[in-house]
Amino acid sequence: MKIYSQGDQAIVVSIEKEVSKDLTGDLLALRSYLVAQSYPFITEIVPTESDMMICYDARDMIKHHQIASPYLYMKELIESIQLEIKYERNDEQLTQVPVIYGGQYGPDLDRLAEYHQLDNSSFITIHTAPNYFVSMMGYSPGFPYLTGMDERLFVNHTGEEKTFIPAGSVIIEGKKTGITTTDSYGDWLVIGYTPIELFNPHKKDFALFKLGDNVKLKPISENDIDLGGFKPCQS
């Protein structure tokens, strides 16, 4: 575990291992522990795939808690926490996400299947076989990066040009799958679409997924589900 300063009011904890569900669990366990302690000077905790940034109010620590060196205090605090604290998760609990693959819903599927020397059916079978987990949130509110994709589908390129990409687009980037939560414009490789709402700012729990959640992608046809105002990708 590596701990280092990020400016004068934040510290980063980096667990230098390959991204995995256990690694995500370790970070979430650490975050849960710190939240439970209700330290008044910790202002924000931001976990990512392999590290976590803990923001603190250095002025408050010095003025009201007689802490001479906020960074050293935070470093010693984190080092004192035993990472044997386990994140409680239910690996058997999967959220199923229905996906319509190909055609206007996944305009890059044909090219990606050809790139991997697969037919579309085989590509979809490989893509939907794993149980994914949410290893990172980002890009847009509630946007889940799903780790666990079969290495046979890894890519090292993006789309040929930027296009309009609707919310609900299932994309591939590098070693991961993602699902867009808002309409956007970019060069994602879009292979499918889900009408499931992943982000709603008007709800208390505005994001469907959180870090560590387990996700199963389920292939369906466009006749199996309400498309929910689908707008196709376009240049």
TrEMBL record:
GO terms for molecular function: hydrolase activity. Residues 1-209 form the Carboxyltransferase domain. InterPro entries: CT_C_D, Cyclophilin-like_dom_sf, PxpB. Keywords: ATP-binding, Hydrolase, Nucleotide-binding. The keyword Methyltransferase does not apply. Pfam families: CT_C_D. It comes from the Bacteria. This is Allophanate hydrolase subunit 1. It comes from Staphylococcus marylandisciuri.
